[in-house]
Automatic annotation (TrEMBL):
Compartment(s): Cell membrane
Highest taxon of the lineage: Eukaryota
Family annotation (InterPro entries): Leu-rich_rpt, Leu-rich_rpt_typical-subtyp, LRR_dom_sf, LRR_N_plant-typ, RLP_Defense_Trigger
Protein name: Leucine-rich repeat-containing N-terminal plant-type domain-containing protein
Membrane topology: Single-pass type I membrane protein
Start and end residues of each Leucine-rich repeat-containing N-terminal plant-type domain: 3-27
Length: 697
């Protein structure tokens, strides 16, 4: 491996002072290097020569994280010569020990036995390094690190019992991350001995002991300095301890367990600094406590997928700092509080409940709102015109309610929308042509709004939570800072005939509109063809008429196009063959006629089900040859549609009906008026005498 990292100030020149190089810090007294920060510097999947760093005898801080390089345990031992090392960050590399094979050899060393020699270490970060073996062995190695304040072993493959009795000497330990491993047994009460502990992440560790319900009580009675507790995605059960809500926590995640019962009462004065509360995916029931609404510093509240019932507390109107609110998949009822004053709100998830009433005007006080998910409730009324004032909205999901009325023109002011789901309601009227003003993910039109992690900053000591509940070290400063991240933003949207969740950054690349199962009438606006970045378009199960616009062929990125179950007529535009991304296509159960598109490109994959319910269609896909004479008539009628926008079937039907009505009216007049009847017969006799004079003679 090249010993010179790709940094602009690092030069292979003996006259250059390395103390002036970026990511290098030297001692003011000795001039020797004491800090090297080479995170995300080397190319991945290479071997690192750690002997390059052993000459730095006074080195106190070494950061080689996020390089993806291969470490051989027996070679890594050379770093133990750095006796003054206080910070060692090796996260996100690849370690090989006796239980996993390196590309070229197999190690026979035990798990990093030399770590115990770094008695000056204060921060040790080994997360995400493919480490395997017994955690008991690891604990014995670490027992001598009495100065350790930060220990990160998360996202490895360690197993066995957690050796808290080996950590009792670490009286200074403040941050402990052992998430993402495969432990057995339970967390012993000896955790109470870690009196300095401020943050603990124990998520995704497979803890499932029958007495695990005692764990929350243990934490509740432990160190008064505890500020962050993550026990998510285990199998903890029983009722959450009341004492846990009477601690001065900043961050609490108990999601993804088997907790039952009600949320206990809490002393809000103790929780006045709480920023994140996540109790989602448990078995908790009862009404949501009103005291949560008094946590005015709360930024993230996630209670989804439980069995909460009753109304949304009016006290929630006081959550002026809330940014992420998720109460979805419960049994909440009643109206959404009209007093909402959620001025910081960015993501609102209230879907899959029993909420009723109108969309509250209080949403106007959330100008930064990006996601509004109200689907599958019992909300009613029309879409209010003022919704168009929330111009930062990206995802609007109102599916499965009782909304009615027409779409207000002001709705088109929401030009940043990428996902729009109004399906399964009772909307009427035409589809607004101004929908073409909405970007639906068009490249460069709006800035990305969603990330793989949603950052929630706050002052004071804190920690970093990413998807796997890890903490992280602030490389630019000598101390640990907490930067809290909540779960990825997630929305669910129907496309390609299935409902899929879209998470994190992928939402930035998804664009779709679902207006199906309503009562929309009129033509499909030709302007819809301007939505060139849309990937899913569903207009099925409405009362749309007229022809399929040729402009839909401009939707070059669309993957799912469903126009079925309407009253569309005319031909299917052959230009649609040019959409190479199309995977799902349906125009079934309309009044379409003529030849279906040739079986070319993507259309070679569409069979009878895409066209069924249109008796006047023919072509290879239907295994039905088109009769030439009949086809020419069909093409003529289709020409009326394309040129004048006339539905041929409606035209012929109305013409015949008009003829019959006039004929019957004429007969009735002759029947009731003898004078006009005599004149008519005399007129016919005169015409016949003129045309056939020989007959009159």
């Amino acid at each position: 491996m090249d010993p010179i990292p790709p940094l602009s100030t690092w030069v292979d020149d003996k006259r250059s002072d390395c103390c002036t190089w970026e990511r290098v810090k030297c001692s003011n007294s000795t001039g020797r290097v004491i800090r090297l920060s080479l995170y995300a510097t080397y190319s991945s999947h290479q071997y690192l020569d750690e002997s390059l760093y052993t000459p730095f005898e006074e080195l106190q801080h070494l950061d080689l994280s996020e390089n993806g390089v291969h470490w051989k345990i027996e070679d890594l031992e050379r770093l133990s010569r750095l006796k003054r090392l206080e910070v060692l960050n090796l996260r996100s590399n690849i370690f090989f020990n006796k239980r996993n094979t390196a590309p070229s050899n197999k190690s026979d060393k035990s798990i990093v036995p030399f770590l115990g020699e770094w008695k000056s270490l204060k921060t040790l970060i080994l997360g995400g390094n493919n480490l395997t073996g017994s955690l008991l062995d690891f604990g014995k190695v670490l027992t001598n690190l009495s100065n350790l304040e930060v220990l990160d072993l998360g996202a490895n493959m360690l197993d066995g019992f957690f050796p808290f009795y080996d950590l009792r000497n670490m009286s200074k330990l403040k941050i402990l991350d052992v998430s993402g491993n495969n432990f057995s047994g339970r967390i012993p009460p000896s955790i109470l001995s870690l009196n300095s502990l401020e943050a603990l992440s124990f998520s995704h560790t497979n803890i499932k002991d029958s007495v695990s319900r005692e764990i929350p009580e243990s934490f509740a009675l432990s160190s008064k300095s505890l500020r962050a507790l993550i026990l998510s995605n285990n199998r903890l059960d029983g009722q959450i301890s009341t004492n846990l809500f009477n601690k001065s926590l900043i961050f609490l995640r108990l999601n993804g367990n088997l907790f039952t019962g009600n949320i206990p009462n809490a002393t809000t004065s103790k929780l006045s600094s709480l920023k994140t509360l996540d109790l989602s995916r448990n078995l908790i029931w009862g009404e949501i406590p009103t005291w949560i609404g008094n946590l005015t510093e709360l930024k993230t509240l996630v209670l989804r997928n439980n069995s909460f019932d009753g109304p949304i507390p009016l006290e929630f109107c006081n959550l002026v700092n809330i940014e992420f609110l998720d109460l979805s998949q419960n049994y909440l009822s009643g109206p959404i509080p009209s007093c909402l004053n959620l001025t910081s709100l960015r993501y609102m998830h209230l879907q899959v409940n029993n909420l009723t009433g109108l969309m509250p005007k209080g949403l106007l006080k959330s100008p930064n709102l990006k996601t509004l998910d109200l689907k599958h409730n019992n909300l009613s009324g029309s879409i209010p015109y003022w919704l168009g004032l929330l111009t930062d909205l990206r995802d609007v999901l109102l599916k499965g309610n009782h909304f009615s009325g027409s779409i207000p023109h002001e709705f088109c002011q929401l030009n940043k929308i990428a996902i729009l789901d109004l399906s399964h309601n009772s909307f009427i009227g035409p589809i607004p042509p101004c929908f073409s003003n909405i970007t639906f993910g068009r490249n460069g039109a709006v800035e990305p709004a969603f990330e793989n992690r949603i950052e929630v900053m706050f002052a004071g000591p804190a920690y970093l939570y990413v998807y796997s509940d890890h903490f992280d070290f602030d490389r630019e400063k000598e101390t640990i800072y907490y930067t809290v991240y909540v779960e990825q933003e997630e929305v669910e949207f129907m496309t390609k005939s299935r409902s899929d969740p879209y998470k994190g950054e992928i939402i930035n690349f998804m664009a779709g509109m679902d207006l199906s199962c309503n009562k929309f009438t009129g033509d499909i606006p030709r302007e819809i063809g301007a939505l060139i970045a849309i990937r899913a378009l569903n207009l099925s199960h409405n009362q749309l008429t007229g022809s399929i616009p040729k402009s839909l062929s401009d939707l070059k990125l669309v993957e799912s196009l469903d126009l079925s179950h309407n009253n569309l007529s005319g031909q299917i535009p052959s230009e649609l063959i040019g959409i190479n991304t199309l995977e799902v296509f349906s125009v079934a159960y309309n009044n379409l006629s003529g030849r279906v598109p040739d079986m070319k490109a993507q259309f070679s994959t569409f069979g009878v089900t895409s066209y069924e319910g249109n008796p006047f269609l023919c072509g290879e896909s239907l295994q039905m040859q088109c009769n030439t004479s009949k086809d020419s008539v069909t093409l003529t009628l289709a020409g009326l549609t394309d040129k004048f926008g006339i539905d041929p079937i409606s035209f012929v039907s109305s013409f015949a009906a008009t003829y019959v009505v006039y004929l019957l009216g004429f007969v009735i007049i002759l029947y009731v008026n003898p004078h006009w009847r005599g004149l008519w017969f005399n007129f016919i006799d005169a015409c016949l005498s003129f045309m056939f004079p020989f007959c009159s003679k």
